[in-house]
Amino acid sequence: MSFEPKILGIACNWCTYTGADLAGTTRLQYPQNIRVVRVMCSSRINPSFIFRAFQLGADGVLVGGCHPGDCHYNTGNLYARRRLAVTKKILEFAGLEPGRFRVEWISASEGNKFAQVVTEFTGQIKALGPQTKFKIS
Amino acid sequence: MSRIGVFVCHCGLNIAKTVRVSELAQFASTLPDVVVAKDYKFMCSTPGQEMIANDIREHRLDRVIVTACSPLMHEQTFRKVLAASGLNQYLLTIVNIREQVSWVTHDLDEGTAKAKALLNGAVSRSRLLMPLTSRVIDVNPDVMVLGGGIAGIQAALELANTGRKVYLVEKNSTIGGHMAQFDKTFPTLDCSACILTPKMDSVLQHKNIQLMTSCEVSEVKGFVGNFDITIRQKARYVDHNKCNACLACTEKCPGKSVSEWDEGLVKRKAIYIPFPQAVPQKPVIDREACTFFKKGKCRLCEKVCEQKAIDFGEQDTFSTVKVGAVIVATGYDLMDTRDLIQYGYGKYPGVYNALEVERLFNSAGPTSGKVTLRDGSEPKAIAILHCIGSRDKNSHEHCSRVCCMYSLKFAHLFKEKTSADVYQFYIDIRAAGKGYEEFYNRIIEEDVKFIRGKVARVAKSVDEPDRLIVEAEDTITGKFIKLPVDMVVLSPAMIPRSNAKDVARLFNLSTDKQGFFMERHPKLAPLSTMSEGVFIAGVCQSPKDIPDTVAQANGAAAEALTIVVKDKLELEATTVMVNPASCCACQNCVRVCPYGAPFFNEPKGVSEINEALCKGCGLCASVCPSSAIIARHFTNEQVLAEMEGLMEF
Hints:
The complex is a heterodimer. Helices cover 40% and strands 17% of the residues of chain A. Chain A is an alpha/beta fold. Chain A has a single domain, classed as Rossmann fold. Chain A has a four-stranded parallel beta sheet, with helices on both faces. Chain A is globular, with a radius of gyration of 14 Å. Chain B contains 17 helices and 34 strands. Chain B has a five-stranded parallel beta sheet, with helices on one face. Chain B has a five-stranded parallel beta sheet with strand order 20-27-21-22-23. Chain B has a four-stranded parallel beta sheet with strand order 2-1-3-4, with helices on both faces. In chain B, helix 3 links the parallel strand 3 (63-68) and strand 4. In chain B, helix 2 (46-58) packs across helix 3 and helix 11 (403-417) runs parallel beside helix 12 (436-445). Chain B is globular and about 90 Å long. At the A-B interface, helix 1, strand 2, helix 2 and helix 3 of A face helix 4, helix 13, helix 16 and helix 17 of B.
């Protein structure tokens, strides 16, 4: 059987989650490996969420927020951007393959982009194979 | 120990087609703490809601999970069920298996597997939910309407007549929109100006409307009930408070540019009012065309202005308006038909687009209502080409809805004003509207020739160099036609405004495939958007005619009113709180909050939250090094529990 990765998505309520809904409303098709957790703002994402996801066996983590400058809470995603950039560095320093953690800015009107990013990311994770570095069995 | 009830919705076949719903309910019943799990065809219907309410009582449920559509769709519906059954509404969890599962896969196994994982995550999180109390805020009673076309004008007037203060924001220097450019309106052949200009004047005179022309929205902050909208007043270089509209400046001005109002058929001055009936009747300077701005000298307008209203030093200014609701009515553009080179627009002078022809018919237009070609001669044969860029897979798939009718109107006016032969090249005639079919029959009687076939090409005539040849296949006779004409009229696709994407981003609106703003629900909430408190009206939502636009504008006004008519609005209880025992007094929270909600209580040595200011983003919770800040409804434990549940399957 081919490798079916588990991908965790964390999406802000206002942009990326709504964008993901729009992908559904317009019946776009994308791989079903992603499971999305909704938070109010990408700035709510504590780096520990990302670390924990990899410990739990996520093969990839995709974070989605509003475009920088368009945050529903004015500046939340600007903090998120910096914090998640550091998170990515730490993960890679600790040995995670660079392609497994991705941050994308997807607005409420970008259902297409959501489907496209998820499709592309899923393909990338499939190519990388199972994530074993952090997984606690 | 919790007592969780899981309710799986089929949504007819919307979900049931790609998720095995009964298997999902069966799976739910095996999960810890789930005491009842059921599936039902339409959970949001009355029997569905009653089923949940009964089970809450019968099984003494203390948590409810509804596995259905997006929480953005029906979370409120099901929260009310909980509240009515004596359960705190925040003990509800929605699992989105429609928009994010069944609609994005065709595979029954994949869909079911993903739905199980999501449901498992929800059950883990559900146990940790806490009852919360909603906050109540004051609602700003005013409304902003964006766009001063017929939709915006109508909505603004309706709201203003209820006594609300309305800010009508228009990017151009006059209101009126496209409707102001038309000569006659179908099917009644009412004069467009006669029905529109009185309304424009009412806007200007209305004591409750603040008209803001040459203005654009630059920033939107806040939420339903309390939006803070920053508006950029573009420099007009004319002080409209001083100007008495004598228009001496426009006479003297040597600068010229193409007239947008006349669709580029003639020139206008650099200091100008777009058209004689413009509202407000005050000129503005077009910086790009102004001799002074280009060459550093001229100032003729300044010299003739007795009111000393000209101010070349004027800058853009910014102001903030506070409103409770917003109506977006930004209208449309016609597609640029130069992109469809086979029709020769922009290459052959005899090819016009529909708005140019509207101007030719108009008595206030460049030819004073006479139908003449660019060389001044009267056309002897005219071809009107339907569906240019519309209903076309290579261009825009959608039907622009009004072109059939205005093309028929054009035919009538051509017949009235010229002795030309008029040909309609159509795919289908769509005349669905009150009095439309009757109008179509009337035009058939007027000796207009209908050729069913899409034009393949417009070319220059070889035999008569001044004429054009329209090439098409008549799909009724099967014959290939080459028709010599003098004038070709294109009915181009109506498309979203070029800046619609920016507007969508400012107001957090979704757009459809074509880029038109998306309604909250295509059938039942056609004027609301996913952005609470923001409504849409007119062609910015999809192509439509004037009666439909006006009806939508009235509807949007009523919808906006339902928000601003209330003094108070219930807000989500998802604010943050500080556990003083863990607070390390670093004050990170105080520094990062965009709203100034956290503050440092010096005597106690801990941070506290002003809940009235908190919007619940949770930013402070994630910068708190000691995890002393708890984001209600999205606590670390709740989010992590959901993740754990998701990753188990």
